[in-house]
Amino acid sequence: MNKVILVTGATAGFGRAIATKFAANGHDVIITGRRKKLLDELELSLKDAYGVDVLALHFDVRNLAEVELAIGSLTGKWREIDVLVNNAGLAVGLNQIQEGVIDDWERMIDTNVKGLLYMTRLVSPLMVQRKRGHIINIGSIAGKEVYPNGTVYCGSKFAVDAITKGTRIDLVEHHIKVTQVAPGAADTEFSLVRFKGDVERAGDVYNGFTPLYAEDVAEVTYYVTTLPDHVNINDLVIMPTAQASATNLVRGEET
Ligand code: NDP
Ligand code: 8X3
Asked: What percentage of the chain has pLDDT greater than the value 90?
């Protein structure tokens, strides 16, 4: 049966790969993000390659009015969202707390925590009405372990961990699955964003080991939606083989 999947942050990285994976398996996708040109290109390429229906919604998850407008604009089958993937997120900066940049903190907390909450608040009632649905929050190993200079990013992802657990408790009586997918180091635009466009510094993050790729995360995100109705994966941590924990990464050998 084909489903309707809404993926936030589909213009790059995991979100783009997740939308592609679902479309490749015949599902209709709602793709969202701030970069309209990339969204429009993805819409065309998914329709063309897989013949599925694609709806591109251009908004910033930090802006409640924009989120309300976007979800409020859905009609017909697009309101019957089977899977919400709360993926939009970012790290900005890498500093000790006493030197932290307040604007960086606000971007992370507003996107990773409040944006995810806005989306969940607006989409979950549609699922409750239908007594079906699956919410997948993209957390991080940074939501399981704190690492140096990552206080606020880690704090935002610990919040995603807690919000995922609470959401599951709230929605269990409505037969709605809630899953967290928590990846380790993955080569996407993530580090370029964290280091504010510094290509060299971003590239160094992935030197000397084989990181996760967006397609790896898309694979497991898709997998958790393929299980029988009575089975839910609560929490899935996916790491590069070369990475044992947030701070324990073996470099020097490509695996
Ligand atoms: P990318 O930077 O490649 O992609 C991030 C996506 O989020 C983009 O599509 C971007 O779209 C979207 N986004 C960011 N801010 C907003 C916003 N305010 N409103 C709407 N969309 C937004 O990073 P990843 O794919 O790596 O990251 C995806 C998620 O995975 C994030 O939550 C991140 O924290 C998490 N993660 C990443 C890991 C990694 O190592 N890469 C590991 C673990 C978790 P646009 O700019 O067009 O708005
Ligand atoms: C993103 C990966 O290494 O910053 O969540 O935790 S890391």
From this structure: 98
Average pLDDT of span 191-220: 98
Summarised one tens digit per residue, pLDDT across range 34-61 is: 999 999 999 999 999 999 999 999 999 9
CATH number of the domain encompassing residue 121 = 3.40.50.720
250 is a domain residue: no
Question: How many domains, in total, are found in the chain?
Answer: 1
Q: Residue 55: which domain range?
A: 4-238
Which tens digit of pLDDT belongs to each residue from 118-136?
999 999 999 999 999 999 9
- Ligand 1, residues 18, 34, 114: which to mutate, most atoms within 8 A of Cβ? 34
CA distance 187 to 97: 26
Inside any domain, residue 135: yes
- What pLDDT digit, counting tens, does each position of 141-174 carry? 999 999 999 999 999 999 999 999 999 999 999 9
The answer for residues whose C-beta is within 8 angstroms of residue 102's C-beta and 6 or more apart is: none
Q: Say how many Å lie between the CA of residue 203 and the centre of ligand 1.
A: 17
The pLDDT of residue 253 is 61
Q: Is residue 252 part of a domain?
A: no
223 is catalytic: no
What residues are paired with 30 via a beta bridge? 6, 55
CA of 78 to the centre of ligand 1 (A): 23
88-93-98-103 Cα dihedral, nearest 10 degrees? -60
- Ligand 1 geometric centre to CA of 189 (Å): 8
State CA 88 to chain mean position distance: 5
Question: In this structure, which amino acid lies at residue 43?
Answer: E
Query: Is residue 194 domain-resident?
Result: yes
